[in-house]
Amino acid sequence: MTQDKRILITEVALRDGSHAIAHQYTVDQVSKVAKALDEANIPYIEVSHGDGLAGSSLQYGLSRTHELELIEAAVAVCRQARIAVLLLPGIGTMEELRQAANLGVKMARIATHVTEADVSAQHIALTKELGLEAVGFLMMSHMAPVEKLVEQAKLMESYGADTVYVVDSAGALLPHEVKERIRALRQHLGIPIGFHAHNNLSLAMANTLVAIEEGATRIDGSVRCLGAGAGNTQTEVLIAVLERLGLSTGVDLYKMMDLAEEIVAPILQVPQEITRDSLVMGYAGVYSSFLLHAKRAAQKFNIDSRDILIELGRRKVVGGQEDMIVDVAAEIAKSRQEPAVR
Ligand SMILES: C[C@H](O)CC(=O)C(=O)O
Ligand SMILES: [Mn+2]
After folding, report:
1. Which ligand is nearest to the CA of 232?
2. How close is the Cα of 337 to the center of ligand 1, in Å?
């Protein structure tokens, strides 16, 4: 593997992992996890509702603790790590971005669906104005052909993004698809490229290594796989693998192993694994955070959540359309009650 630049890890368990625990983080949990990550020398720690700033709502799931309190707690315990936030324009607003900056956040990741980068212009501009590092975060990157992805990433670069991420939200990308995406972005952009994986098809680590091989230098991971769906690339495992490959992250492997085991594992009600639901999300190419909603809807309508997820994938439903989950479940249930036409 040829790589001359240091890989900079962003730990996302305190944001993406919020989906996995139905947004129930407490100040105590966030303080302990952030402090331990900081001591392990993780450079960036993302803290927000799973759906980004202001995601706490009936539609996306109510947070137990206001995210600004969680962000404040994380900032207070970190000596070197930079706290990051996620913001989806339309969910989070300029005001929340300002509040996060006032609390000491150093990086904002502005996330849009892969074909909607144009809605990130004002938020990226404000991020820079506030003196923060700006990252463009192209979600559901498997849903756009490479040329479209490049076009959208270039838009984000033109708005002032310091980095653009390929985000495999559904864990649906195959290694050759990651390779062509990162390669094309490296060819057409002049800024660092990042990669955010999900493990639905058990490819998060392999895809991350392919991304790094193609020159991605900003990589996301979630400790103990504490991320939406099947989780992300498992951070402590990634650190070990990169060390074996001779790639430097500056992160302390033993400390990562210890915090994963002693601090993060107890937060999970059940260990993260590739369940049939998360597998079907990767297979169908649907949004990771749909899982809990689809399971609830399946229970309500007494149907199989796989049928809901596959139908959502067929309809190319995107993040922000969570309300469609119940509609789809109701339609499936209704179609099963209707007598077959002779
Ligand atoms: C809002 C999403 O959870 C962002 C993300 O992590 C992804 O798309 O993956
Ligand atoms: Mn994610």
Report:
1. 2
2. 35
Residue 19: active-site member: yes
Domain membership of residue 215 (yes or no) is yes
51 lines ligand 1 (CB under 6 A): yes
**Domain-terminating residue out of 232, 267, 302:** 267
Q: Is residue 274 part of a domain?
A: no
| Residue 329 within any structural domain of the chain | yes
CA of 33 to the centre of ligand 1 (A): 20
State whether the beta carbon of 156 lies less than 6 angstroms from ligand 1.
no
**Active-site residue (options: 19, 23, 123, 293):** 19
Q: Indicate if ipTM > 0.85.
A: yes
Ligand 1 contact, 234 CB (< 6 A): no
Instruction: Clarify whether residues 194 and 58 are in a common domain.
Output: yes
Amino acid at 193: I
Domain coverage including residue 90? 8-267
CA distance 17 to 25: 9
* Tens digit of pLDDT at every position of the chain (342 positions): 655 578 999 999 999 999 999 999 999 999 999 999 999 999 999 999 999 999 999 888 999 999 999 999 999 999 999 999 999 999 999 999 999 999 999 999 999 999 999 999 999 999 999 999 999 999 999 999 999 999 999 999 999 999 999 999 999 999 999 999 999 999 999 999 999 999 999 999 999 999 999 999 999 999 999 999 899 999 999 999 999 999 989 999 999 999 999 999 999 989 999 988 889 989 999 887 788 888 899 999 999 999 998 999 989 888 778 889 999 999 999 998 877 665
The answer to whether the CB of 55 is under 6 A from ligand 1 is: no
Domain annotation covers residue 142? yes
Residue with the two structure tokens 């900081």: 38
**Helices marked H in the chain:** 16-20, 27-39, 67-77, 94-102, 121-129, 146-159, 175-188, 204-213, 235-244, 253-259, 276-284, 290-301, 305-314, 323-337
